[in-house]
Write a structure and sequence with these properties.
mainly alpha, flat
Length: 192
């Protein structure tokens, strides 16, 4: 985000970071689930992604350097938290906490319920919700995006919990989608 901010400015960097991180997480979950559902071994998927990371690393090395260097000439620096950024940080932290819970808990519960292929769908659903809402989130004022994101985070989390309690894959997917509109959309973009 800092690198993109120096090249494109803070607003464009927030959009780029929000889209690429959400799309990348979602694509990884969806493609790995598709690979294993088609009979591919999860271990093989690991090696495919490892080669992909190597290719992306080479591509990053070819990217241009930021136009403006750090005033002190440092390559690394500690993050700065401007006054009033606590709400933005809390929005991102809460959203990613819910996302982490979905990532950590949902696959095991789905496997126990007999939906072993549903874990990738749940992750992809969450991240798709985030990617699809991002254009709308960018048009909102940051505080408004965070406020709407807090509501969708609550509703989505309740949907995931209800889906798990009722053993309903579709309700769980819908809840993950709605939660994703905050975790990788409204709350994330507003916070950035």
């Amino acid at each position: 985000t800092a690198w993109a901010s120096r090249l494109e400015g803070p607003a464009r960097a927030a959009s780029l970071t929000g889209f690429t991180s959400s799309a990348g997480f979602g694509a990884g979950a969806l493609l790995t689930s598709a690979w294993t559902a088609a009979g591919g071994a999860a271990v093989t998927a690991w090696w495919i992604w490892l080669v992909g990371v190597g290719l992306v690393t080479l591509a990053v090395l070819a990217l241009p350097a930021p136009a403006r260097l750090d005033p002190d000439g440092r390559l690394l620096r500690l993050p700065a938290f401007p006054p009033g950024s606590g709400l933005a940080g809390a929005s991102i932290a809460l959203g990613w906490g819910v996302a982490g819970t979905i990532v950590a808990v949902v696959p095991g519960v789905l496997s126990a319920l007999g939906f072993s292929g549903g874990s990738g769908l749940a992750l992809a659903s969450m991240l798709t919700g985030g990617v699809l809402i991002q254009p709308f989130a960018r048009r909102l004022e940051a505080r408004r995006a965070i406020a709407v994101g807090a509501l969708t985070l609550l509703l989505g989390t309740l949907g995931v919990a209800a889906g798990l309690a009722l053993e309903s894959l579709w309700l769980l997917l819908a809840g993950a989608f709605v939660a994703g509109t905050s975790t990788h959309g409204l709350g994330y973009i507003g916070g950035l």
